[in-house]
Design brief:
Helix content: 55-70%
Shape: elongated
Low-confidence stretches: 1-27
Mean pLDDT: 87
Radius of gyration: 18 Å
Largest sheet: none
Order of helices and strands: HHHHHHHHHH
Number of helices: 10
Distance between the termini: 12 Å
Structural class: mainly alpha
Number of strands: 0
């Protein structure tokens, strides 16, 4: 499960980055876009800080620099940017660019607990007993919140939880309903 999460970290960060546009303005070159992004980030814009952090993390359009990545992601996260908080949580959970630290991962996920991806990670931490005591009811709570917000993998996992009675009374009808929701979104496995 942790290996799957590690592989999905890069995919998620790439998906965030693929939606990168500098406030709808047209510029002649990527260099102009990067300069403008730096300007906004240095002025304290949390969205720009987040995107710049992801770019440095991946080495996309800028030289890869994990120190700068963590700096920009932290600045954005400390301003309450939920995707930056979630991203830091993933980095600490998986030991990417930082030393693995489940306490910090949990704390960052809790700070962004209204974000469906963070809810999903919290559910997995409770299911697996990572940093927190294993607690199926808490796992169900977070998985259900994430699924309710349309997270397809959470919908799939929730269907399995209903099917097997993990954290909730077994309910095959609800399991089927959630499986249909998940598969309608082309949920993985």
């Amino acid at each position: 499960m942790l290996r799957l999460m590690k592989n999905s970290v890069i995919l998620l960060i790439f998906l965030f980055l693929s939606s990168f546009h500098v406030y709808g303005e047209k510029h002649e070159s990527e260099a102009d876009q990067i300069k403008l992004l730096h300007k906004f980030a240095e002025e304290g814009n949390a969205v720009s800080q987040f995107h710049l952090g992801v770019m440095y993390l991946e080495g996309d359009q800028v030289p890869q620099d994990h120190t700068k990545a963590l700096d920009w992601l932290s600045k954005s996260a400390n301003q309450g940017h939920s995707r930056a908080q979630y991203s830091l949580g993933l980095l600490y959970l998986n030991g990417l660019s930082v030393e693995e630290n489940f306490q910090k991962a949990f704390d960052w996920f809790m700070k962004s607990k209204d974000f469906h991806d963070s809810q999903y990670e919290l559910a997995l931490m409770y299911l697996q007993g990572l940093f927190v005591e294993q607690n199926n009811e808490a796992a169900f709570y977070w998985m259900k919140n994430s699924a309710d917000q349309g997270h397809p993998q959470a919908q799939y996992e929730l269907a399995l939880m209903y099917e097997s009675g993990v954290g909730i009374t077994k309910n095959l009808k609800k399991s089927e309903e959630w499986m249909k929701k998940a598969t309608s979104q082309h949920s993985p496995e």
